[in-house]
Design brief:
Chain A: This is Nickel transport system ATP-binding protein. Chain A: Belongs to the ABC transporter superfamily. Chain A: InterPro entries: AAA+_ATPase, ABC_Ni/Peptide_Import, ABC_transporter-like_ATP-bd, ABC_transporter-like_CS, P-loop_NTPase. Chain A: GO terms for molecular function: ATP binding; ATP hydrolysis activity. The complex is a heterotrimer of chains A (276), B (297) and C (310). In chain A, 45% of the residues lie in helices and 24% in strands. By secondary structure, chain A is α/β, with parallel strands linked by helices. Chain A has one domain: Rossmann fold. In chain A, the strands form 2 sheets. Chain A has a 6-stranded mixed sheet with strand order 6-7-8-3-9-10, sandwiched between helices. A 4-stranded antiparallel sheet of chain A has the order 2-1-4-5, covered by helices on one side. In chain A, a hairpin with a 2-residue loop joins strand 9 and strand 10. Chain B is mainly α. Chain B contains 13 helices and no strands. Chain C folds into 2 domains: 76 residues, no CATH class; 217 residues, MetI-like (MetI-like fold), CATH 1.10.3720.10. Chain C contains 14 helices and no strands. Classes of the chains: A alpha/beta (276), B mainly alpha (297), C mainly alpha (310). The interface between A and C is medium-sized, with 33 and 22 residues.
């Protein structure tokens, strides 16, 4: 059983060092090869913190304990230097807001090339060929122009695609997408989720998809983890969660979403629109 | 009131508030508290040290240093406070008008502010004092003339934030008059911000005005003022350096208290700052207006 | 970029005209008639109405305001600011050397302020909350609450009188710079160090640092990115700081008898020597505007985000 899981998280606790306030308590979950797990919950429920702590990226003053293993390797035993090699290569993060995710005073390409340079011994030409190919495959029309652009010259949706294409080149074991669609408008969000689905098919990597967009979750996730106030309240398959959740909080989340889409359908007079 | 409650939780700010309040009170009641008349010359007691009758000793004319210190609060602090109040009121009024009505009003007021702010403040203060003659009144007038534009600009930014808030738009749709909206919806929220900005400016104003008095451009002898007292002590600096001590420490304590209080007010106003200072949003490329307007005497 | 620079410089010209006009009518604020002041300053024993009228026409004060402004502006552009009421010497022969001395003092001080506040700002931001950060911040807080003349007196008393290491006043050697520069640096470094520190901190908490870290970039590379973005703030802050320092060396100059603008101006104020005061205001206001414009242009050149709006 153990060998089949890419990622195992057991008894993860996260707390603030100074005040001792517990932010996430005793959460455990596993991720199988190629599985997509959605973590849902309201803001402040500890979704993002959980994701960051998988990569040991929480800011100073926030401590964590518990067992996190990638392909059976205990990550808490790694040195900072070893952990850095894992970041990007084995874990790949896709941020919520593309606009602020890149150094504002460097062209996008500089970040992409630097990242690839850290993990691979490719020549510059090879990196550029691979990036250009993946960028066009995710629908970025002029990869060379994009590489030369500064973050503020591109749209949020384009930057999201840049991050996705970087993930494709890096071929990580686990992709962590932290609310990737929240900052986007509905149409762009729909297209980006589409890209995520294709990304999964293409790489076969496991994915953690943090979101409070239940529509997107329904389309992409195999399993859903519901968090509330720093704890896991429910964990099950997407189908079961949407069909009949056992925890009242989950039922509340699902029903409010349904009420909203019903209202939306009535307004639009077109049932198809609501599925986005 | 909530602001005050939160402020009291911060011990340093509470202590600072006590220092500032005590200073103001002592200044107001100077004739009741001072042990001697501040200008009473007593040549026999020249440069005498601390004694039971004169706790802080006597200066070069044998005047009681403690009494002069107490009377000095009036020009050094109380009048500065009054000038600050006047500046803040003028600035707030124009800033409110510009931020609320926008359009032409805004454009005209802001153009004037641009011109005023393109003069370096300290230089203009000197110029106005130079033309109108030395004296505390002229310094204070110069200050009001030079600083209102800065206040107006800061307040305009603050008001613009709130004027865009949904409930203000809502009130506008409901047909509530401009003055009603300003007094009922914008002023109460913007006021604490004004308090923070003004208290931040007070410290540097006290320093600058005492600096001008030190140069002999402010209040004229024999009146007591902290900067003036140091100016007098300067003449005997090499033989009696201890005379610089009392007025200097008085200014340092008061200005530190004002600065701590202003910091505390800011934290109390924005609880996010209290949790972790790093969240202070000084976005790249933007200078915090509070800091860029500060000058050191 | 060139187009923007030209546009920005073009916008400065009307501002300079307004500034010069305001400076010109500054004399009108005086409660005394300038002609009377001149006569007083020249030590004329009995001042009669006739004498005042004669002096007025001698100074050209009976002509229309705008005509007088135009003549004044033209001569100012040739650095002819008239002559001192008191000594009768041309204003520029007094103001020019004083300006150079003040500029020297300002630039040397600014250099130290920039180096010190950037260094401290970076070190403290990277060690946020540690004892070094806390102690530097408390000391800087205390120092900004200290009147500069008090600090000067303290330092003169200690370094010059007690230890007899440094000259108390004047501008005789390189050693003369030490005390005045130290006082100015102490007064301002605390202020600007805090701006650099908070700008570093807000950058360290930006998403791009998190994403860079999540991509496996080295801490060194991330620190360089943060530095570059924080220093953009520094460029605009220091561009504004230099003219402010230039205008506020008055107190320090007076204490150390520095033969600069501050000393000259305070003496002129006490003597009511209007032409010098007027020239001083004009020169500093123009310097202020030019420095601001230059720092604005420099800022636009280094910051790609600002360049976009051009």
């Amino acid at each position: 059983m153990n060998g089949m899981h890419v990622l195992e998280v057991e008894h993860l606790n996260i707390w603030e060092e100074r005040s001792g306030r517990v932010l996430v308590h005793d959460s455990s979950f596993r991720l199988a090869q190629g599985e997509c797990l959605a973590i849902v919950g309201e803001s402040g429920s500890g979704k993002s913190l959980t994701c960051k702590s998988l990569m040991r990226l929480n800011r100073t003053g926030v401590r964590q304990s518990g067992f996190v293993a990638l392909n059976g390797e205990d990550l808490s035993k790694l040195s900072d230097k070893e952990m850095r090699k894992f970041r990007g290569r084995r874990f790949c993060m896709i941020m919520q807001n593309g606009m602020s995710a890149f150094d504002p005073s460097r062209p996008i390409g500089a970040h992409l090339l630097e990242t690839l340079g850290v993990h691979f011994n490719w020549s510059r030409a090879e990196m550029e060929t691979r990036l250009t190919a993946t960028m066009s495959s995710v629908g970025l029309k002029e990869p060379a122009v994009v590489m030369r652009s500064y973050p503020h010259e591109l749209s949020g949706g384009m930057l999201q695609r840049v991050m996705i294409s970087l993930a494709i080149v890096l071929e990580p074991d686990v992709i962590i997408a932290d609310e990737p669609t929240t900052a986007l408008d509905a149409v762009t969000a729909y297209e980006v989720v589409e890209q995520f689905m294709r990304l999964r098919e293409r790489l076969g990597s496991a994915m953690i998809f943090v979101s409070h967009d239940l529509g997107a979750v329904r389309r992409i996730a195999d399993n859903v983890l519901v968090m509330k106030d720093g704890g896991v309240v429910e964990h099950g398959t997407t189908k079961n969660i949407f069909a009949g959740a056992s925890h009242p909080y989950t039922r509340y989340l699902v029903s409010s979403k349904q009420a909203m889409s019903r209202h939306f359908e009535q307004l639009m007079g077109d049932a198809d629109v609501a599925k986005g | 009131m909530k602001l005050l409650q939160r402020l009291m939780k911060d011990k340093l700010a509470a202590a600072s508030l006590c220092v500032v309040a005590a200073t103001l009170l002592i200044g107001l009641c100077a004739p009741l508290i001072a042990p001697h008349p501040p200008n009473e010359v007593n040549m026999e007691l020249r440069f005498s040290g601390a004694s039971w009758g004169y706790w802080l000793g006597n200066d070069h004319l044998g005047r009681c240093i403690l009494s002069r210190l107490i009377y000095g609060i009036r020009p050094s602090v109380l009048w500065v406070l009054a000038a600050l109040g006047a500046t803040a009121i003028i600035g707030a009024f124009l800033g409110f008008a510009a931020g609320y009505f926008r359009g032409k009003t805004d454009a005209v007021i802001m153009r004037i502010c641009d011109v005023m702010l393109s003069f370096p403040g300290y230089v203009m203060t000197l110029a106005i004092v130079g033309i109108m003659g030395a004296g505390l009144t002229n310094i204070l007038i110069a200050f009001v003339m030079m600083k209102w534009a800065w206040f107006a600009r800061v307040f305009r930014t603050a008001v613009m934030q709130y004027a865009d808030a949904d409930y203000v738009k809502f009130a506008r749709v409901l047909g509530i008059g401009h003055i009603g909206i300003m007094t009922r919806h914008i002023a109460p929220i913007a006021l604490p911000e004004i308090a923070v900005i003004s208290s931040g400016a007070l410290g540097s104003m006290i320093l600058q005005i005492s600096g001008l008095s030190f140069l002999g451009l402010g209040i004229q002898a024999p009146h007591a003022e902290w900067g003036m007292m140091m100016n007098e002590a300067r003449a005997v600096m090499f033989t009696r350096p201890e005379l610089m001590l009392a007025p200097g420490l008085a200014i340092i304590v008061l200005v530190s208290a004002v600065n701590f209080l202003s910091d505390g007010l800011q934290k109390a106003l924005d609880p996010k700052l209290m949790l972790s200072e790093k969240r202070a949003k000084a976005g790249a490329g933007v200078i915090p207006p509070r800091l860029s307007g500060k000058e050191v005497a | 970029m060139l187009g923007y620079a030209l546009k920005r410089i073009g916008a400065v010209i009307p501002l300079l005209v307004v500034i010069s006009f305001l400076t010109f009518i500054l004399n009108g604020l005086s409660p005394m008639d300038p002609a009377e002041v001149v006569l007083h300053a020249q030590g004329v024993p009995t001042i009669t109405e006739d004498l005042i009228a004669a002096t007025r026409s001698e100074l050209g004060m009976d002509r229309p305001l705008l005509a007088r402004y135009w003549d004044w502006l033209l001569s100012c552009l040739q650095l002819d600011f008239g002559s001192s009421y008191v000594s009768g010497k041309p204003v520029w022969s007094l103001l020019g050397p004083a300006l150079m001395n003040t500029l020297n003092l300002t630039l040397v001080s600014s250099l130290f302020i920039i180096v010190l506040s950037i260094a401290l700002g970076i070190v403290c931001a990277l060690r946020e909350g540690k004892w070094l950060d806390l102690s530097v911040r408390s000391v800087s807080f205390l120092l900004t609450s200290m009147p500069s003349y008090w600090l000067s007196a303290l330092m003169v008393w200690y370094f010059s009188v007690k230890l007899d290491l440094l000259p108390t006043s004047g501008m005789d050697s390189h050693l003369s710079y030490v005390l005045p520069v130290a006082v100015i640096v102490i007064g301002y470094a605390g202020l600007y160090f805090r701006i650099i520190r908070s700008s570093m901190l807000s950058n360290l908490n930006e998403d791009y640092v998190l994403y860079g870290r999540a991509c496996g970039l080295s801490e060194r590379s991330l620190t360089i990115q943060v530095l570059r973005n924080s220093l953009q703030v520094a460029v605009s802050v220091f561009g504004l700081a230099i003219p402010v320092i230039l205008g506020s060396t008055v107190v320090v100059e007076n204490i150390f008898a520095w033969p600069g603008l501050g000393t000259l101006t305070v003496n002129s104020i006490l003597n009511r020597d209007f032409p010098i005061i007027q020239a001083y205001v004009l020169v500093l206001a123009v310097a202020f505007v030019l420095f601001n414009t230059a720092s604005d242009l420099l800022n636009t050149a280094v910051n790609p985000k600002l360049r976009k709006g051009i």
